[in-house]
Amino acid sequence: MKNGFIKCASATVEITVADTETNLKNIISAIDDAENLGANLLVLPELCVTGYTCQDLFLSDTLLENAKNTLAKIAEYSTNKYPLIIVGLPIKYEYKIYNCAAVVFGGEILGLVPKTKLPNYGEFYEKRYFASADELPEGYNCIQIGDDIVTIDKRLIFRNANMDNFRVGVEICEDMWGADTPSRMLCESGATIVANLSASSQLVGKTKARRGIVTSTSSRLVCGYVYSDASPSESTQDCVYGSHLMIAEAGHLLAENSSFADNKIIYSEIDVDRIVGARSRNTSYVSRRVDGYTDILFDQPMKETQLTRKIEKNPFVPSDEAEVNLRAEEILKIQSYGLKKRMQHSRSDKAVIGVSGGLDSCLCLIAAARTMDLMGKDRKNVIAVTMPCFGTTNRTRSNAEILCEALGVTFKEVNITAAVNQHFEDIGQSSDEHDITYENSQARERTQVLMDIANRVGGLVVGTGDLSELALGWATYNGDHMSMYGVNSGIPKTLIKRIVLYVAENSEPKLSAVLKDILDTPVSPELLPADDKGEIAQKTEDFVGPYELHDFFLYYMVRRLFSPAKILRLAEYVFEGEYSRETILKWLKVFVRRFFIQQFKRSCLPDGVKVGSVSLSPRSDLRMPSDASFNIWMQELENL
Hints:
Elements: E1 5-11, H1 20-37, E2 41-43, H2 61-77, E3 84-93, E4 96-105, E5 108-114, E6 142-145, E7 148-151, E8 156-160, E9 167-172, H3 182-188, E10 193-197, H4 206-220, E11 224-228, E12 246-249, E13 252-256, E14 265-271, H5 272-281, E15 294-298, H6 321-345, E16 350-354, H7 359-375, E17 382-386, H8 394-407, E18 410-413, H9 417-427, H10 436-457, E19 459-463, H11 467-472, E20 485-486, H12 493-505, H13 509-520, H14 540-544, H15 547-559, H16 564-574, H17 581-597, H18 599-602, H19 631-639
Parallel strand pairs: 1-2, 2-3, 8-15, 9-10, 10-11, 16-17, 16-19, 17-18, 19-20
Antiparallel strand pairs: 1-14, 3-4, 4-5, 6-7, 8-9, 11-12, 12-13
Helix pairs in contact: 1-2, 6-7, 6-12, 7-8, 7-12, 8-13, 9-10, 12-13, 15-17, 16-17
């Protein structure tokens, strides 16, 4: 439960139809499995106390009394167990029978939630035996089971007294298939996790349909969703049940078994803090306490939740190779169509780009070349300018020229060494003093050259700076920080690498070879002299830290709004064996500090294209004071 992670288990049980004693043993076994996993929540199938396929036996008082007694035994068994347990059984109340989910914790039956939508088509005849939750008498309804007086109502939300965001609502099988589901009102009233007890017959194609509904419901309602299905041990008189189990969070499937799988329990961690944060940022999300919806508290103590769910090491980059390629192509289109519109609006037909032989300018050139194709213009209208100075190496200069030749754009070289030396003389700067002035003078001279060339040819300076650099403020103010349109400003460094690799793998040999060599070149601004071997001496990641860590921090701090402590925990989990806790903490402190103090650069960014869910544009996504204090974030890190 720490950091908002709720370990959820979905389990199916072997049942013997109408044999509550045998079913009790298997339910207890599932409870023990969930207990051993440290699960906060266990969801079991619909009517598993009796079996879903009892048919007219549901009308038998003998079966109904035994089911109720069995529930009392389950409650007693739960006395010293950790999970919140949700189990299905039939309940007779006021002369009608209801298909119910019983919620049990700490030796107590907390509540009964009856099914609302009763299928009465095809193989289903539930209206023959059961009444809908909507048929409950008006007002407060309760029933005695064992020593407990238990509320029976579809409007119950089970809330942990020790963790307010852990709130569970319940719907049953068919409830989720309708147009207006019980889960909608439950989530609007505060539920963060929906449990679904189901007995869904296994038909060709139905697994895919169930998966689609579970994931889309969790996305639409911004919630966790735990789904448990009946097993093949149900009667097979007319249907077979496939024990399909799923756990989803806000549109993402965290865990799933295959139908008829041997594993009878699955588990993962739902991040309820993330769910609450996403709801609070989404102004379209309806949040209201609807009349009649009631919180029922349970006192489950806080425990450390061991993480088992998959958390992407590179959250901006899909793990599936085919999806990476699709995303790369889509981003290239977004970049080129954005630049096309800007050039047409400004009556410009030339794009001026500073090229270094590095990764960012490489992607910028590719996007600009595609833009010319879209506009029906010669790629020679892209003017690529390399501006060697003190730190430029032969490798990057050569790659810049080869790349421009392979793309068919205009290549121009302007050596800025003399101009920078003259500037040093004018301001009294020694060329032997390799300080920030030494570095930034080169960056600002390059920007001046690009701007003036753009003026001469009637073109636009296209910016190369990326999202990761903007987050860290790794740009010279009014130097490479400035352009007339930024095509990379919404793309983090880890994703740029994959886009360039995608282009390399789908290009002719000459272009492919130079792109792959650029990918192998260390990231560097090349503002300090090369080493004795003529190699790059100034490597960005040596100074600010690995970009894969910073992109991870960026995603979870800006997109998810996670605390530094939670980000550290996730990074330790994801990068175990690659970076020590001390290393991660060191670079996380660097990220937080730079993110805050460099906001003034982002406050006056030029226009740039947004390509994903994270953007640092001051006009659309990040409205942040340039002089906000970061003390409380750093204090949290120091306390770690």
